[in-house]
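Entry 14. Structure prediction run on the chain below.
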Amino acid sequence: MHNHDLGNVLKVDFIDANLNNDVFSVETEIGKFCVKLSLDSESSNLQKEFKILQKNIGQKISTFPIAYGIENSVEYSIAAMLQMPNVMSAGVLSVVDQEHALPFFFKQLNGFAPVEGVESVSEYLDSYIDFDILKVPDAETDWIKNHGQIRRLISEEILYLQNILRSKKNLVDFSSQNLCHGNLNQSTLLILGDYIHAINWENAYIGDPLLDLLSVRYELFFSEKFEDSLIKKYYESINQSINEPRLHRMRMFARYFNLLKIMVDYLTEVYVLKAYKKNKILNCAIKFSKNYDSFYQLPSFDKKLKPIAEFFVSSVI
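Output returned:
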């Protein structure tokens, strides 16, 4: 990174970690920067993210990319640090109360140009539908195998969800070829006034931004009525009419998929990243409780999937 003159480093703070990279805030004489480092360039997706940011600066909903490279086997990317709070800090109402913030964000996202090397929507979905924590390198599988509730969660409920999604995946039209974010949540969405920006584009895929839109409800916990209004404004902004049958199928798929995503993200963070378990369990419990009414509407939820919610809620009581 010495080839990029960012001035003398004044302060370095660790921000976060995921499976393939660590994220730092670096303050220098000339400003604040987000620096991501990885020892696994094949799986980090840092180059993919950097190319996406470079090509779509004009959309004005992402950060400004500065540099990407590999030095001494360490892959890095540098971007400007956006000086705005994420939704987790600002509060969900900071988004919901801004009438035009989300519609404008998704309109801009719909205009993102794809770049080479971005996975397809099928590959993105399959990373969750085919997920098996017992086959992930570095996972604490011994503890899982000896923990009855977690073992049952994996062998029964998650497998049940995955089989449903395999069958429903073929019934949904995923033919759109737009760039999608893939991980919009309270940490990756930043807000300042009427404007929302997104960070962490490593999970981006080629598909329909409608799936991103339908998924964000399960992260920001707004009502179906608010979602209806958001969908209507989104389609108006891109000058398209709503295909109601397709929307219905996509909505049902998104409901099942986000229930699965909560589980897979939890297992990954706790048993692979070895994060502080109680905080991660609490986060999942909150997502379950906030989305319980929506999940409860799923066929057979009461008989097949309710144990998942009960397990996570009881874990933090």
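The chain is about 50% helix and 15% strand.
Filed with the rest of this week's runs.
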